[in-house]
Amino acid sequence: MAKRSDSSRGTVHTLAQYYSPDPSKPKRPIPEVGLHHLPDLIKRGRARHKLLPKEVGFDMSWQITLIQISTTPYSFTYITRTEAPRLGPWTKRQHARCVVVDTQIELFNLCTSKSCNRMAHRRKQQLRTSMATQSPTQNQNQGAESAEPAANVDQQGATEEPVKQSSTPLVFVNSEPMREEQVQNAVKFLSHPKVKGSPVMYRRSFLERKGLTKEEIDEAFRRVPDSAPTVQTGGVTQDGQVKSSSNIQQQAQPQALQPGLSASAGVNTSSATLSRSRFHWSHALIAIGVLAASGAGTAIVVKNSILPRLKSWIRKVVIEEDDEELKKLNRKPTLVEEAAQAAKSAAAAAADVAKASQDMLISKEEEKKLFVEVVSLLDKQVQEMKSMTNALRRIEVQEDLRVTQTNTKQLIVNGKADYDLHSVRSTSPPVSYEPPSSLHPKSYMEIMNMVQRGEKPSNTRPWEVSQVQNSSTQVPYAQGNGEYLNSKVQDSTQSNGDGDDALPWWQRRNVRIREIGNEAEYNGNGSSYGAASNQPPPQRTWVPPQPPPIAMAEAAEAIRRPKPAAQKDQMSDTQSVGNSSDVSDEVTRIPRRSESEGAVKGGSSSSIPSTVEIQEDQELRRE
Amino acid sequence: MPVFKTPFNGYSVKFSPFYEDRLAVATAQNFGILGNGRLHVLSLSPNPSQPFTEIAAYDTADGVYDVAWSESHDSLLVAAVADGSVKLYDTALPPTSNPIRSLREHTREVHSADYNPLRRDSFLTSSWDDTVKLWTLDRPSSLRTFKEHSYCVYSAVWNPRHADVFASASGDCTLRVWDVREPSSTMVFPPHELEVLTCDWNKYDDCIIATASVDKSIKVWDVRSFRVPIAVMNGHGYAVRKVRFSPHVRNLMVSCSYDMTVCVWDFMVEDALVSRYDHHTEFAVGVDMSVLVEGLMASTGWDELVYVWQHGTDPRAP
């Protein structure tokens, strides 16, 4: 029996002492029967431990490398080494069911190899005899492990602390037996073709959300033969994720038909293109032949029929010209008059042309003037920006002198400065766009909208090492912030305001003074600061991952409405959200919003999860 | 009862485990969407005209979403900052040398920080990048990263009885129980159908954990039998943002929610709601119960107010 007192923390390394995966290394004989040198890993049958084949190998007569051992029915997977000398060729990833009895494992139902079964049988008998001699309370049923550890803890008589430390985490483990029904459902889910295309993470998290324990999930993954995610077309996988996560058995089938159709259509088109490409060569040859033949035919036709017609037509024309010449001689005096008239008209036309050209010149000059004006305005803007960059550089220099965490802040400041130089936006429009931004309290929705539009709230300082006194936060908090909620909130803010006035403590007064001073400062700095703050924030390049569409689809399930959740247009949604004046909707959206703050923060491109959740929440409320 | 007005919107409040009159408040500008942040360290004084003294205030480049007091040093704080960094502050040092350390490993906002009450040397941070990281004070990099969730991890809380066990609540609707000695999570179950925003262990019973979610309910579970909750507490009007068990009374817990109320529950009783405080005028997002003073509670919210009051009294009473 392995002593529990000498079992160290259940790490792979302790095990590696006994079991060397490398066949070249000398193998230590296992002192006792069975796979019992997994005490810490097995933790008396309650723990699930995943061992990497490289790290752990069993030097047993089976020469099995343990991959995974789990709780009841204590199945584990192992990879067998092909170079096992005594037992012939092995198949990989055999599944064995075993029962953990104290720290021993009884192996049975091993792999298909006859010799393996013989070994297993022999071991089984050995174990059984050894077990029979041990305490009679041990039984091999699945549900008995709760009694065993308790008994064994008493029997071991190890010191209290290591026992406590090793036994108490047993509690924090899924200790119930695997539910076959759940495993089968999971297997069905995993075998679904659409699920196969999704990342393993999403499949796992879906199963976890359904309440399956880790063992059940692992069992399901084991049972499904090819559960590794295959790289398919991205659009199909996205659709597959959304659709597979909804009711697999009910909705998946009609929906599976559509992606199936699309997939098959894709296949068909690809095959058609393939077939077309093959046909191209012969088709091209045929086309060339047809063209040549038609060319020859037309040439012949032209020669035979059209040319004579042309000739006759030319002759007619020539005859007519001759007639005309005769007639012209008669019209000489009239020609002179006509020529004079033509000359007059030409002169008039020339005069018109001259006028038109003069107009053109005038307009061009005007355009030039406007252009010059525009250029001058741009120059002014450039100068302003230069002054701003200079100011920022000064600030940077100040930063360098102080000892702080400089790197991150400088990056931020530099990023903003760079944006100054590169942005073409003039300072005036944004300020006029948001006239009250510096003076009025911002509601949550206003800020969210601003952020989504790409502007920065004006009260944020570019990061300096500012002390408490310097931090001019432009949040005028005298009024309170609860403006995006209902009138109830407004009433309470009024009362809050009164309450603030009533409280006679120094903190509030100081705070107000600071605020006034800062406002003056702000107004003095005026446009330059406004310009600086009205630039979009340094773009967060990290786009938050979409939450598992399973989540969204599950919510959809809950609402019981089919929706194309993942394909909603982002901007329209956010705009509708922003423009909605329905306060109750705003209120309901807030919980979702705040939880998806992170998504929104990442920029407007990432608002899919937030908008979808908002939509779902809305619908939930409306229901 | 003392009220403190923070210049920014409050996010979290924690009592100090060393001084019964000290607490830390994490705040963020513009509701935490974008902007700077500030960490306040406040001290309560018996002087009624001056109820709060601000011991220190530290500005950060981005909002501070959570703060945790160190259990080993009475002046150390861990701040979870929205730009993905974890900052350590020492109130005993002058403000120019603070933060003493800035740990940048999370790729997204760090949503919560929790200090190990038993080992006293390590702390956890959970982030919106689906990971939970384990740190110690002396190392500049994390000891371990626990990456198994598939969405933002909103909270990671140490078990008050087992030094290596912690639980994490995530937006992928699952709760995972981890053991630091194990390579992966030891338990996972879905406590709610919607995102789980917070979790907390019972201080007296080591297997009882409470979770609260966007579905407005708080459920109390025994991790040994996690299929059915011990108690389900409905009563909040909106998502419940934070849940804390009382360190003094076995069954008592306090929760704050987006319906602007702070509720106290007793989950062993049929009608679980003990008291409801609606002193906030905005989302109440942070709540804490003091370990040193029985019944003392603090809450903060987006209305930029921090209230500290005794359970049973009116927080707005002067």
Your description of this structure?
The complex is a heterodimer of chains A (623) and B (318). Chain A has 623 residues and is mostly helical. Among the domains of chain A are: 96-129; 179-224, Arc Repressor Mutant, subunit A (Orthogonal Bundle). Chain A has helices at residues 12-18, 39-42, 114-133, 147-156, 160-167, 180-191, 193-196, 200-209, 214-223, 234-245, 252-330, 332-401, 406-422, 428-433, 444-453, 487-502, 506-533, 549-559, 570-579, 583-595, 597-601, 608-622, and strands spanning 49-50, 64-69, 75-80, 94-101, 104-108. A five-stranded antiparallel sheet of chain A has the order 1-2-3-4-5. Chain A is flat, with a radius of gyration of 42 Å. Mean pLDDT of chain A is 57; it is low at 1-21, 29-113, 135-168, 229-267, 415-440, 465-541 and 561-621. With 318 residues, chain B is mainly β. Chain B has strands spanning 3-5, 9-15, 22-28, 37-44, 52-60, 64-69, 76-81, 85-90, 101-104, 110-115, 122-127, 131-136, 144-147, 153-158, 165-170, 175-179, 187-189, 196-201, 208-213, 217-222, 231-234, 240-245, 252-257, 262-266, 273-277, 284-289, 296-301, 305-310. In chain B, the strands form seven sheets. A four-stranded antiparallel sheet of chain B has the order 1-28-27-26, with no helix packed on it. Chain B has a four-stranded antiparallel sheet with strand order 2-3-4-5, with no helix packed on it. In chain B, strands 6-7-8-9 form a four-stranded antiparallel sheet, with no helix packed on it. At the A-B interface, β1, α8, α13, α15 and α16 of A face β1, β5 and β17 of B.
